[in-house]
Design goal:
Layout lengths: L1 H19 L4 E10 L10 E8 L4 E4 L20 E9 L5 E9 L4 E11 L6 E11 L6 E5 L12
Antiparallel strand pairs: 1-4, 1-6, 2-3, 2-5, 5-8, 6-7
The structure holds 2-acetamido-2-deoxy-beta-D-glucopyranose (2 copies).
Length: 158
Amino acid sequence: MEIKHLILSFLILSSIIYTNANSSDCIYTIYVQTADIPSAGTSANVSIFVGDDYKDELSISNLKDWGLMGSTHNYFRVGETDLFSLKGPCLRGPICSLIIVLSGYDNWFCDFIEITSVALGKSCSQKHFVVNKWLDINKGSALILQDECVSEYGSLRG
Ligand SMILES: *[C@@H]1O[C@H](CO)[C@@H](O)[C@H](O)[C@H]1NC(C)=O
Ligand SMILES: *[C@@H]1O[C@H](CO)[C@@H](O)[C@H](O)[C@H]1NC(C)=O
């Protein structure tokens, strides 16, 4: 009896907690690898725009604000992998495009950016974007990557 009651209270409590949380949100985790070559690191702020086939887009301004290494950590240093995580609206399709925007004063050589999204009752979506390029502040500093966007839904390319 006691235990049953306890379980029931627990169930009621957890359903309240879950109702208050927004279950339609996705959790995004982002791994960013800075190249292990001289001067590859940057102090610039990095913002990204993640998109799907439906042209749904999630903008994540200033990745550092979502860093999991703490506010005093220096992000985007030579040869290092940085982790970021945030909650946001889910995209309708799997992630297939990435725009990287740099704002600051020094260039950056990024090896890759890997993004995973998870949501309640949905399967995970993961995308590994090979960047392998310099982002040059003097050349506008924006880089657009589209790996597998299908054109029938209208890709960002057009
Ligand atoms: C839950 O989040 C989604 C996307 O962020 C938003 O559109 C919706 O209004 C939110 N619902 C509630 C109940 O807050
Ligand atoms: C980077 O973002 C921080 C806020 O997080 C801001 O204070 C700083 O001025 C930004 N730097 C550049 C170069 O945009």
